[in-house]
């Protein structure tokens, strides 16, 4: 995914479920794998990965990701 497409999804994320679905399907496995590497617990890693996406919606309201 290009930076432009990523930021376009972020621009629509709070009103458009499809934008969240695109980001989730593109990045969830990587976020989960990273959390699992550090946490060494699948349940905790899932919680962390889910929290990342919930916070992404809030973060986008104030910041642009490059």
Looking at this protein, list some descriptive labels.
single chain, 66 residues, mainly alpha, 3 helices, elongated
Secondary structure elements and pairings:
Layout: H1 3-12, H2 17-39, H3 42-60
Helix pairs in contact: 1-2, 2-3
Structure characterization notes:
The chain has 66 residues and is mostly helical. It is 79% helix and 0% strand. The chain contains 3 helices and no strands. Helix 1 (3-12) packs across helix 2 (17-39) and helix 2 packs across helix 3 (42-60). The longest helix is centred in the middle third of the chain and has 23 residues, at 17-39. The radius of gyration is 12 Å and the shape is elongated.
The CA-CA distance between the termini, in Å, is 13 Å
What pattern of helices and strands is seen along the backbone? HHH
Q: What does the radius of gyration come to?
A: 12 Å
User: How many extended strands?
Assistant: 0
Give a quick precis of the structure.
This protein has 66 residues and is an all-alpha fold. The chain has helices spanning 3-12, 17-39, 42-60.
């Amino acid at each position: 995914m290009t930076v432009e497409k990523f930021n376009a999804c972020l621009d629509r994320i709070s009103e458009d479920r499809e934008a969240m679905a695109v980001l989730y399907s593109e990045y969830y496995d990587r976020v989960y794998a990273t959390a699992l590497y550090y946490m060494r617990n699948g349940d905790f890693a899932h919680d962390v990965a889910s929290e990342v996406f919930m916070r992404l919606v809030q973060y986008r309201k104030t910041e642009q990701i490059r």
